[in-house]
């Protein structure tokens, strides 16, 4: 498999609407196109499509995932145990009331306070039976992508539903805890609710899930154009490739690097090992290496919601 991932677009979801409808519950299928069309543009929604580039065009999608940041009040409703198919509950709330998921301003306030609450709206692999785990290679790839995308946020609790005993055992092995479950095991008609929160992370500090709850204050205050440049560098792009991506000249990319160095030197003196006034030649590569190493350890610097 040659796996790649990207954010979902509406056409992705509509093309597999029947398969993605399961976690939303049987009564919500007709509402999904309108809900997805609006949700995909929300800052509190994170979506992912995993593609296997070795498969024929038109059949490359091998996993669909979508996560929403919700209010503490909505999370508490879900934890009451009276609302199965929590994704469908969010869809109804979004279309009928419009107060879920969180708005950008609410995300900023919550992240600076008690922490964000996330719910998984769907995690579906179209090449296995409904409710079952994805093949190991896809599952491992997805876990890495989710981890990199979500680490750096300040979380309070994560919630998801599972629809099979196989999925239940897999998530329990990863540190998740049962919040609500009826019957002997989860089924397609009777999902179980799992969760993991900050207090549990402190009790299991060595678990991979626990590292999702390690957060630091944002220190650099990077502007949007700074973050775009630095994320491209972390993705392995060269300056020439960045110029192509941003549709600017190579000289403009060099100037943007110098602007980043100058900004970092002002807000965090001493982080960069050399004077920002020096040119990109020679020691510029060393400055870049130090900054990128810092950012690999501090993903919160990419989680600013101010702009």
Could you characterize the architecture of this molecule?
The protein is of the alpha+beta class. It folds into two domains: 3-213, Aminopeptidase; 224-302, no CATH class. The chain contains 13 helices and seven strands. Strands 1-2-3-4-5-7-6 form a seven-stranded mixed sheet, sandwiched between helices. Helix 7 links the parallel strand 4 (116-124) and strand 5 (155-162). Helix 3 crosses helix 5 and helix 11 (239-246) packs across helix 12 (250-267). The two termini are 37 Å apart.
Question: Approximately how much beta-strand content do the residues carry?
Answer: 15-25%
Derived from helix and strand composition plus strand pairing, the structural class reads alpha+beta
Rg, please? 21 Å
State the low-pLDDT regions, or none: none
Number of helices: 13
**How many strand segments?**
7
Biggest β-sheet strands, sense, barrel: 7 strands, mixed
What is the count of structural domains? 2
Q: What string gives the helices and strands in order?
A: EHHHEEHHHEHEHEEHHHHH
CATH superfamily of the largest domain: Gcn5-related N-acetyltransferase (GNAT)
| Gap between N and C termini | 37 Å
Q: The CATH topology of the largest domain, please? A: Aminopeptidase
CATH architecture of the largest domain: 3-Layer(aba) Sandwich
Shape: globular
Helix content: 40-55%
């Amino acid at each position: 498999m040659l796996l790649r991932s990207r954010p979902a677009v509406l056409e992705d979801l509509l093309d597999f609407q029947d398969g993605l409808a399961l976690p939303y519950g049987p009564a919500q299928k007709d509402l999904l196109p309108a809900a997805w069309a609006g949700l995909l543009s929300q800052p509190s929604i994170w979506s992912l499509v995993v593609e296997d580039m070795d498969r024929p065009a038109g059949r490359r999608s091998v996993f669909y995932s979508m996560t929403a940041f919700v209010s503490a009040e909505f999370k508490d409703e879900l934890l009451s145990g009276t609302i199965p198919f929590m994704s469908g509950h969010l869809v109804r709330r979004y279309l009928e009331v419009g107060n879920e998921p969180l708005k950008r301003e609410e995300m900023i306030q919550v992240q600076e306070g008690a922490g964000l609450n996330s719910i998984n709206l769907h995690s579906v692999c179209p090449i296995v039976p409904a409710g079952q785990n994805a093949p190991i290679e896809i599952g491992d790839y997805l876990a890495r992508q989710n981890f990199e995308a979500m680490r750096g946020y300040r979380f309070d609790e994560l919630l998801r539903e599972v629809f099979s005993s196989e999925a239940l055992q897999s998530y329990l092995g990863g540190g998740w805890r049962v919040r609500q479950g009826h019957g002997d095991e989860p089924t397609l008609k009777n999902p179980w609710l799992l969760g993991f929160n900050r207090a549990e992370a402190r009790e299991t500090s060595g678990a991979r899930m626990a590292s999702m709850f390690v957060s630091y204050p944002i220190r650099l205050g990077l502007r949007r154009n700074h973050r775009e440049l630095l994320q491209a560098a972390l993705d392995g792009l060269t300056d020439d490739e960045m110029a192509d991506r941003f549709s600017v000249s190579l000289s403009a990319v060099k100037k943007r690097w110098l602007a980043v160095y100058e900004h970092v030197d002002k807000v965090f003196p001493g982080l960069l090992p050399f004077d920002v006034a020096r040119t990109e030649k020679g020691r510029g590569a060393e400055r870049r290496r130090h900054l990128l190493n810092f950012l690999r350890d501090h993903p919160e610097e990419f989680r600013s919601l101010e702009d």
